[in-house]
Amino acid sequence: MLLCIIAFCSAKIQARICDICIMRKLKLLIPITCLFILFSCGGSDEEKENRTIFSYNEMAGVTSLDPAAAISFENIWPVNQLFNGLVQMDDELNVIPCIAHKFSVSEDGLTYTFNLRTDVYFHDNPCFEGGKGRKVVAKDFVYSFHRLYDSKVSSASTLLNNIDRSDKTEYKGFLAKNDSTLIIRLKQPFSPFFSVLTQKFFSVLPFEAIEYYKQDFRRNPVGTGPFQFKMWEENTKLILVKNPNYFEVDNKGTRLPYLDAVSVSFIKSKETAFMELLNGKFDMLSGADAFNINEVLDKDGGLRDVYTSKFYLQKQTFLKTDYIGILIDDKIAAVRNSPLIQKSIRQAINCGFDRDKLIKYLRNNIGTPAHAGFIPEGMKSYDPTKVKGYSYNPDLARELLKDAGFPNGEGLPEITLHTPDVGNYKEQAEFIQSQLAQCNINLQISIEKTSVLRQAVNNCEYAMFKKSWVGDYADEENFMNIFYSKNFSPQGSNYFHYNNSAFDEAFEKAQRETSEANKIELYQKMDRMIIDDAPIIPLYYDQVIRLVNHKVKGLGSNSMNLLNLKTVSKEK
After folding, report:
1. What is the rounded distance in angstroms from the CA atom of residue 98 to the CA atom of residue 191?
2. In 10 A of CB 108, how many CB atoms?
3. Residue 501 backbone phi and psi in degrees, to 5
4. How far apart, in whole angstroms, are the C-alpha atoms of residue 134 and residue 128?
5. How confident is the model at residue 334, as a pLDDT?
6. Residues 6+ apart with CB under 8 A from 20
7. 3-class secondary structure, 366
8. Rounded to whole angstroms, how far apart are CA atoms 178 and 182?
9. Helix (H) or strand (E) segment spanning residue 46
């Protein structure tokens, strides 16, 4: 029927009967019509009445449904509903079984063995013979992981740097021992490896779908997840429907998921999206930029009373640190004559502004002031009593300026902070600017397009810049590797060109360490070095924040801000 609708529209266009305005309206109407058709055909009246759809808005839009391109939250969220991997994370960030019902690592930390379930099937799809999805086997993971080495397909190839594809393993870093046993071999021990495998890059997909859809697999995904692909009108609507053959069950033995469908809209106006939430058209809005926080939240970060009858607030720690980065490599032209080359100046800036006020007045208490290190709240090694960061202390800032040869800031050259043109980053920068001025630190602000800033920082063109770091996986290694000297940008993400042999030694030791307690001590040691050397100015540790309709039940929340809908239900 969808094809009939599209054909009808096409005929009208060719006949030039409909004007441009009507066609725009019809384009918006097609996905809604598809949803109506989807849930009005088949089944009894009672079944139709009880069908449930979870709807949310994604302002940034989705660019691909291929797990190899799951590099942003916009893509990761729908991909997480469509695909599964060997392992997964629970809401406490523990690595738990998924398609691999059992997994282990050898004593030397080099060989990982995964025993696969035998009841997992790919979604039914025309790419398979007879349109029926087949059983997942170990060779499917070998195929899926090898695909990640292709830079044209994925940017995740660096995550595979430690896979041993040498003559020692007969060039087989991934080995399907049999249909239900997968072996992965590493060059050297890497303790976060299980956490790395929870990323959606490492989802399993069938070779038949890649061969069938080729470059168009991005919009024709075939996975094993709780929901399967139905339709995607880019920038308008994405619809996923329940996978009736999904392998996971709840603690009562009921097959997941509970929902019948997921509907994703792409409204760019946060005012319009918020009205849709108020009207019950959306079940959730996520992120501080998705709505007007001053309108919805009070200054303590709580939900204003006028909205409590409409929806509830989810708010928790987020593995994300917002910071100001400083390039400290004096071999680079942008740094050579900068006062930021002196550690005392960097430390003075760190204690020259009030992080608590920044969070309270500019973010309505969304987030935690960064009074510890770079590792954010929510990680096991986060402990402000053991990693003591910076607090507002203008007297100490002046003393540090004096030590650097600039008493009362006299003779200190102006410093330029480059910040992206998103959210209220400009207001945050202006707040820091005004407070540093009280210590006679002249901070100038340059507002940049996000893409321009990203490229310039990567190419070491700016001495000072505003960025944030989001944990890709739940291990502190992910936050400390951006200070490792072998990860200098532009090849790596050490944008500061921080080089400390003691730090590198501790970092390498932590990768081999199997004791959780010892790892925590090593990461805290590294974090203290970062605070003392001050190649960064930590601002705050962010929070996951969602507005959720009261009808929605079972929507979990986690510090990775991963959206899991398989256990969500919705009241009528």
Report:
1. 20
2. 9
3. -65, -35
4. 8
5. 80
6. none
7. coil
8. 7
9. helix 45-50
Residue in the structure block whose two tokens are 């500061």: 496
With a cut of 70, list the residues of the chain below it in pLDDT: 1-49
User: Which ranges constitute the DSSP H helices of 83-192?
Assistant: 138-147
d(CA 119, CA 121): 7
Of 470, 472, 380, nearest to 196 by C-alpha is 472
Looking up tokens 């739940």, which residue turns up?
474
Closest CA to 114 of 195, 180, 171, 185: 180
Provide the 10 A C-beta neighbour count for residue 421.
Answer: 12
Let me know: does 60 contact 194? Beta carbons within 8 Å.
no
What span, in angstroms and rounded, lies between the C-alpha atoms of 217 and 353? 49
Beta strands in 338-463 (DSSP E): 368-369, 415-420, 443-448
DSSP SS3 for 441? coil
- State the pLDDT at residue 49: 64
Q: Which domains does the chain have, with CATH numbers?
A: 318-543 (3.10.105.10)
Q: Which amino acid is at 150?
A: D
Cβ 408 vs Cβ 434: under 8 Å: no
DSSP state of 206: -
**What's the angle, vertex CA 377, arms to CA 372 and CA 382, rounded to 5?**
60
3-class SS of residue 93: coil
Radius of gyration, alpha carbons of the chain? 26
The helix (run of H) or strand (run of E) holding residue 210 is helix 207-213
Whole-prediction pTM: 0.88
- Sign, Cα dihedral of 338, 497, 446, 361: negative
Asked if 506 contacts 293 with a C-beta cutoff of 8 angstroms, the reply is no
User: Cβ(452)–Cβ(458) under 8 Å?
Assistant: no
The pLDDT score that the predictor gives to residue 157 is 80
CA distance 118 to 397: 63
pLDDT at site 187: 95
Cα 82 from Cα 544, distance rounded (Å):
22
Residue 87 host element (H or E): strand 87-89
Q: Confirm if 25 and 33 have CB atoms less than 8 A apart.
A: no
- Determine the Cα–Cα distance for residues 57 and 321; give it in Å rounded to an integer: 25
- The amino acid that residue 352 corresponds to is G
Per-residue model confidence (pLDDT) at position 38: 54
